[in-house]
Amino acid sequence: MTVQGHCDPRFARVREVFDTSFAGGEELGAAFAVYLGGEPVVDLWGGVADRHTGRAWERDTPVLTYSCTKAVTATALLMLAERGLVDVAAPVAEVWPEFAAHGKQDVTVEQVLSHQSGLPAIDEEVPVEEFEDHPAIAARLAGQAPIWEPGTAHGYHALTYGFLAGEIVRRVTGRSTGEVVAEEIAGPRGLDLWLGAPDDVAARAARLSAGERAGSTGGMATPPPPPGEGTPLEQLARAVLDKTSLMNRALGNPNPNKLKGGGNHPVILRTGWPAMGLVATARGLAGFYRDLIAGEILKHDTLRDAMRRRAHGPDRVLIIDSSFGLGYMRSSMNFLTPRRAADTAFGHTGLGGSLGLGDPDHGLAMAYTMNRMTTAGPGVLRAYRLASAVYDSLD
Length: 395
Fold this sequence. Notes:
The structure is a single chain. The two termini are 29 Å apart. The longest helix is centred in the N-terminal third of the chain and has 14 residues, at 69-82. Strands 1, 2, 3, 4, 11, 12 and 13 form a seven-stranded antiparallel sheet that branches. The protein has a three-stranded antiparallel sheet with strand order 5-8-6. It has a two-stranded parallel ribbon with strand order 7-14. It has a domain at 3-66 and 193-210 and 258-300 and 330-393: Beta-lactamase (3-Layer(aba) Sandwich), CATH 3.40.710.10. It has helices at residues 12-23, 69-82, 109-113, 134-142, 160-173, 177-189, 199-204, 232-241, 246-251, 266-271, 282-293, 300-307, 382-393, and strands spanning 3-7, 29-36, 39-50, 55-56, 63-64, 193-195, 209-210, 278-280, 311-314, 321-324, 346-349, 355-359, 364-370, 372-373. Strand 2 and strand 3 form a beta hairpin. It is an alpha+beta fold. This is Class A beta-lactamase-related serine hydrolase.
């Protein structure tokens, strides 16, 4: 595949790594963008946006970035907190009274943003008819009891995070998170990112394709150990294969795969679920982090506080260690960063391999987008290898 774009000579190693991923068959189509000190130093793309038609990946090809969305949603909510419209330390029920049901009256906005609210899964299956009715899905969560005592543990709220945070945004603004993002983050800055893609954007978006999946063939020579035993990675492998595990309940309801094409379906692209619905170009997502660390979206003090780790250690949903500030991932097994970035980088990964990352100490902002989904094998490290090459190039 021919890789196109610009790469500052100082970052030649980054292009080598990007080229290698294509040469090794790990990529179908992908893009990678980096800003250093607010200036573009890497803007690369290549491959095909649609393997069925052979449509090429262009400079402005957007794609669904899954959970990279969460950092953008968190930022929208933190903007409102800066204006005094919501208090992060206060109970959610202050702005959403119905949420207080079943002992949730003391659950704080901070606990929601840091995956500590105990609501990682929706008890009842969400029907397709509700996929575009975010308040209806949020009402289901308001009517549930927490799975664990809020604040005593953390676990990745893969999909519910967005409906919880999104309903808080709606209650204090009367607007959806997607509308806030369009009107106050993406639009004014000309960023190519949409939480709810317009028809023309959805039409030119790259189509996601399946890659190697963790657990698809078992991945082990021997069966996984019994429940509660084995290493975290062995327990993770077992959870992936167990349809009833908390992990699969959290990741699979509402289930995009109820629609033909899953994440490629127009409903998923246009509804903009605030946990996984962001459609963006690599340049647009990197530009978001560029402006964020520059203090143009949030005040520097707000960002620094949001980066502060609120939860760290074994994840009740993902099993392996994870770490969260207010909506932003911090360095952990679930957010791999180069060693020199372990204490300075924040951002969010997305299912299949996408990445958005900011580092105010090093003046770096970067994003990697792709359409070959993978959760296993060498392909799972594509973004990490690119990020490592960026940091190595700083020398």
